[in-house]
Each structure stands twice: as structure tokens, then as C-alpha cells.
Amino acid sequence: MIDIREVAERVHAVRQEITECGGSGVSLVAVTKTFGFEAIEAARAGGCDAVGENYAQELLAKLEGQNAGLPVHFIGSIQSNKVKSLAPVVSLWQTVDRESVVNEIARRSAGAQVLLQVNTTGESSKGGVAPENLDALRTLADARGLTVQGLMTIGPTGGSHESVHKAFTRLRELTDLHHLPICSMGMSDDFRIAVSCGSTMIRVGSRLFGARQ
Asked: N or C: which end of the chain has fewer CB within 10 A?
């Protein structure tokens, strides 16, 4: 059961931590995967900037006949065959990392707002385009008419403070190089480091809603 008041208190605490880390104007995306629609309602009531969902079928079922009342970000691995059904409800695609996804989103949602996911850790388990291939993906996305708002990355799994800092610093450098406004990095366990490295958008779930079901 989601306690709306408790979620609001946690949102306030996270925003305080953002300020303590030197962040200003950092967007807070509430990751509501595995939780019911009440988590989206709590995120909205608590003053989050958007909600993030990882799984196509779960998102579509959750929003059937419902209005999120907040921008919906897709933050999971994008399957091209799911883009058509997701296009009407997704405000920002955060995990665009390959040509086939660029082409399908452009086909189904002309001018869609996207972030290009970059693998800044070198882990094969992580999605994202390699930094050296980012220019080509950006050129393709622009050519297909997508609105590239920024870049996104996921920090290393179980990484040291130094390895997390290195991965996030790299994304900040690439975001600046491409003159983009959004640098999406940082989750419940590492958003403080991300904010100190210049994140403008964090994706937080368990810190707001507790352990996943």
C-alpha cells in the first residue's frame, strides 16, 4: 500500500539532498515500475516532475483508462515492436541507443523527444551506444526528425565511488560537447554522485516507494 504523505516526505528529502550536493533545477523522475497506479498518483501529489516506467506491457496496462497527470518517460530497454503501442503515452524516450529504435520512433511518433543512452561504464550488461559511436547516432536522430533533448546513462553495477564518478563525469562531458540541456543520470543509490557531477535529471524509485514488490 502506497502512503501518499510518506512519499511526499521522501520526495522532499531527496530534493534536500540534491541541494546539498550542489544541484539546482534537477528534475526528479519517479520510477514506478512494479508498483500500481497509486504510485503514479503519489508521485504527482508529492511534486515529482515525471514518472518513469521500464516495461511496455506494464505501462500500458497501468494507464489503461487512466491519466498519469505527469509526463511519462520510458526508461527501459526499447523493443522496436513495442514503439507503436507506447507512442501515444510516452512523453520522453530516455533509452534510445541504436539505429532501429531511432527509425521506429521517428516512424511512429514524428518529432518525438528523446535522450540518447550512452554506455559510459563499458559493461556488456548495460544498454547504450559506445561514446565513440554517439556522434553517428546523434546525426541519425537529427536526420530522422527526432528532438534530441539530451543524454542518459546508468552507473556501474556495484561500482566504487571512483568508477561511478568517472562514468557520470564522462556523460556530463558528452552532454556539454553536444550542447544539450538534459543530462539524465543517477538513481536511488548513486544520485548524489550524479548530481555532484552535473546531472540535470535523476530517476528514483525505491527511495520514494520502498522495496520493489
From this structure: N
